[in-house]
């Protein structure tokens, strides 16, 4: 029985459970950590943001990374593909390159298609803007998010211009977060500049319920909750599209 199931998988036929086997889905998972699935007429693309977000510099090989130059084309392709109805973004990231993370967040926020994010494990640092970039955000009860000010490793020039640069970069992050969530600027900065919680750093760690209470994330939930929400958004989007088409036909008549 196992040999037969294995043979079917090799030939790209059916799995032993009778479902259609897709070699294309396996290729997507292997190469990009993403997959496009279809269920009950909903075609969604699942995109993962895992580990550390790699930006302009290559991280050590032992680091688990998400390369932003790989994700950017995927987001564009999802938005442009008429067969894909929506995006589910799964996050478990420690953060990473600020500008790379903001670039990804801006792309997701600018999508017209329904988008839902789900924080699993952690959505720390620049993972916060990514989590709130979706039209609807969820966080698992066991997950957490770290809010802290911009930092930089390595040689830093101790001049006023450097401090001003850090402040402007922090403003970019803060503005994006408050525009795409329900947290206020004052509360966000209070959490970021908290000196009473982290031993070796400045900031605040929020668990799932706290992130929702602060207005940073929309809802507590699991994978099924995020999918149900995305399906509803897709259905509403399709209804709006049908309504527009009906109005255009009436005008032409």
Keywords:
253 residues; alpha/beta; 2-enoyl-CoA Hydratase, Chain A, domain 1; seven-stranded mixed beta sheet; two-stranded antiparallel ribbon; 9 strands; 22% strand; disordered N terminus; disordered C terminus
Order of SSEs, N→C? Answer: HHEEEHEHEHEEHHEHEH
* CATH homologous superfamily descriptor: 2-enoyl-CoA Hydratase, Chain A, domain 1
CATH third-tier fold name: 2-enoyl-CoA Hydratase, Chain A, domain 1
**Could you report the average pLDDT, rounded to the nearest whole number?**
86
Structural class: alpha/beta
Question: Please, what is the oligomeric state?
Answer: single chain
CATH architecture: Alpha-Beta Complex
Descriptive notes:
It is a single chain. The chain has 9 helices and 9 strands. It has about 250 residues and is an alpha/beta fold. The chain has one domain (about 35-250): 2-enoyl-CoA Hydratase, Chain A, domain 1, CATH 3.90.226. The strands form 2 sheets. Strands 1, 2, 3, 4, 5, 6 and 9 form a 7-stranded mixed sheet that branches. The protein has a two-stranded antiparallel ribbon with strand order 7-8. The longest helix is centred in the last third of the chain and has 30 residues, at about 225-250. The protein is globular.
In short:
The chain is built from nine helices and nine strands.
Secondary-structure blueprint of this entry?
Layout: H1 2-10, H2 23-32, E1 35-39, E2 42-54, E3 65-67, H3 68-80, E4 86-96, H4 98-109, E5 115-123, H5 127-132, E6 136-139, E7 144-147, H6 160-179, H7 185-192, E8 204-207, H8 208-213, E9 219-220, H9 223-252
Parallel strand pairs: 2-3, 2-4, 4-5, 5-6, 6-9
Antiparallel strand pairs: 1-2, 7-8
């Amino acid at each position: 029985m196992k040999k037969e199931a294995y043979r079917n998988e090799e030939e790209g036929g059916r799995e032993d459970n009778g479902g259609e086997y897709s070699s294309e889905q396996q290729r997507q998972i292997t190469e990009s950590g993403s997959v496009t699935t279809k269920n009950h007429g909903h075609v969604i693309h699942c995109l993962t943001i895992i580990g550390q977000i790699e930006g302009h510099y290559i991280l050590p090989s032992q680091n688990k990374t998400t390369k932003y130059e790989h994700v950017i084309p995927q987001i564009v392709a999802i938005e442009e593909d008429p067969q894909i109805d929506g995006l589910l973004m799964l996050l478990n990231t420690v953060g990473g390159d600020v500008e790379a993370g903001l670039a990804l967040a801006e792309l997701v926020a600018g999508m017209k298609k329904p988008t839902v994010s789900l924080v699993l494990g952690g959505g720390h640092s620049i993972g916060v803007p990514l989590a709130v970039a979706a039209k609807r955000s969820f966080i698992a009860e066991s997950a957490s998010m770290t809010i802290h000010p911009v930092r930089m490793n390595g040689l830093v020039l101790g001049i006023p211009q450097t401090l001003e640069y850090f402040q402007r970069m922090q403003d970019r992050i803060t503005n994006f977060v408050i525009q795409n969530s329900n947290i206020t600027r004052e509360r966000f900065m209070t959490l970021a500049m908290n000196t009473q919680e982290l031993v070796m750093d400045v900031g605040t760690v929020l668990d799932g319920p706290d992130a929702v209470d602060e207005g940073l994330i929309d809802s507590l939930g699991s994978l099924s909750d995020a999918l149900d929400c995305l399906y509803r958004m897709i259905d509403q989007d399709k209804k709006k599209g049908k309504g527009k088409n009906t109005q255009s036909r009436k005008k032409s008549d």
